[in-house]
Structures are given as structure tokens and as C-alpha cells.
Amino acid sequence: MATFTLQRATWSLQISRTSRTFAVSFTTALPRKHRSKHLAPEAPSASSTLFRSNLHNTSPRQSSRHGQARSAFTSSKVYQEQRAQQAAASEAGSSKPAYPPQESSSQAPEIQDLSAGLLDQPVFLDEGARQVDWTRSFHGLSTEAFSPEARDILLAPITPDDIEVKPDGIVYLPEIKYRRILNKAFGPGAWGLAPRGETIITATAVTREYALVALGRLVSVARGEQVYFGPESIPTSAEGCKSNALMRCCKDLGVASELWDPRFIRKFLKEYAKEVFVEHQTTKRRKKIWLRKDGDIKYPLKEVKYGS
Questions:
Q1: Selection from 180, 164, 177 nearest residue 265 by Cα
Q2: How far is CA 244 from CA 114, 224, 240, 270, in A?
Q3: What confidence score (pLDDT) does residue 85 get?
Q4: Which terminus of the chain is more solvent-facing, meaning fewer CB atoms within 10 Å of its CB: N or C?
């Protein structure tokens, strides 16, 4: 007769509430030193005995064992804590959720609709303020002429190389060259544009009134305008509106006054511009455009002969 010493043993109990069955698993491990010689060599080192029972088809003795196992499980501390947590959660969940919903931090902020206006009204100064309120004042207008040096720069004829031609035949001077002339005549920082009102946005254009101030004196007041094609292009159109107002204010200083002279315009177009027929490479639509004689036709337009 062989004697076995069990040094390591584990057991587990599994109960199913739906099928009213339970399973007991008992596992033992035998040390290698006390392995019996009567065991077959291929016998495993761990044995597992699994008992299954159904509560509907059990003998009275087995039912008694089943009841003892269930009472032992239900009286455990872990089972009591789980039941208490489930009861508290069911009471709290009947009135309000256990965790209140939180606002998502990834929600994008609202984007302001610029078509309703930019809300950029100029600041009005008090009547007793020492600073000139250029939103209403005409301080220094026509008090005296500028210096002879400034007059020569402002009234100097523009060179044909600085003049550009639009496809519809309108000649113009780029706005950056107006700024260069003012910087050369007065110096950077000695002139500026002061808004006289808020930006007005219509269905298709942006407009605002500006005042040109030079050497602390009001020179001219003009309203600029710029067409836009969508709400996302309103800021860019507002900057174009400012440049348009600068060009109109410079007319009072005589800057590039030739561009408003019809005789000069016809002479310039005859000598430095040409009119050609072009075709759109994608839509195949043809039209006639103006461009400088030293200019090139850009894609997707291509020059074609009339009647071809």
C-alpha cells in the first residue's frame, strides 16, 4: 500500500443561475521526490476531478451537499459585498445615471459669420482729449502746401513700366507703388490711413471709409470697396478695400493722376498694350482680352487667331 502526501491542492466552485447547476474542480500536485513507484510512468503529475450535478435530478444526499456548498458561497464576504453594490447601483440608477454626461472637449468652437459685419467701429475720443479724433475731425485740411521736395515726388510722372493692364483694358498702378511714393515723399511713419467708420458688408462687396493723414494733417477722405465671393474671403477683401481707399485718396495729392486722363490711357494702350483672342483650354470658350505687349498669356488661356 502506497502513502501519498499532498503538499499543494486547489479547488474551485462554479454555480450557474440559469441552468441551476454547479461544478466543483479539485486539483492536486504531487512532488517529484515522493512520487510512488506503483504509478505508471505516463501518469500526469496533476490530477483533476470534476463533479457536475443538476439540482433537478439529484439524490437527497447530493442535494444536501449542494445546499451546503451554496450556503458556504453565499455567506462569503466577497458575495455579500457584490450584492450590496448591486443593490445600491439599482437604487441610484432608478432616479439618475451613476455618471453624469460630460461635455466633449473636442467640440469645435462656433465660427462667427462675417457676413453680418466685422464689429470694428472706430473709437470716439472725448471732446476734451488732446489727441485729434480722426473719425470726425478735419484738422489741418488745406492749411498750407507741403514742402517743394515732397511736391516733386508726389507730382512726378509715372514710368510706363510701373503701369499694369487688366484684361478689360483698365490701366492701374499697383497699390504697393502708392505706398512707396508716400514713403519717399513724407517718410515711413509720417503718414497713415485712419478709418472713419465701421466696415460695411453687402451681399457681394466690402466697403469702408478712410482718411489719409500726412505729417499730422488730414489730406483726403475716400471710401474703398472690394468684391468678395464667399464669407471666408471677407478678411482679404477688407484689406483690398483699404488699398482701394488709399489709391482714391492719393488722387487729391496728384499721385498717378495720368491714369484718370482719357488721352493718356488711349496713348498708353496704343504704345504698350495689345488686344488678343484667347481660348480656355478646358471649357474651349473664347474671348478678347488686353495685356501688355511684353506680357505673356497664362494657363489655362491660349492665344488663338480670330475666326479659326
A1: 164
A2: 20, 5, 6, 26
A3: 79
A4: N
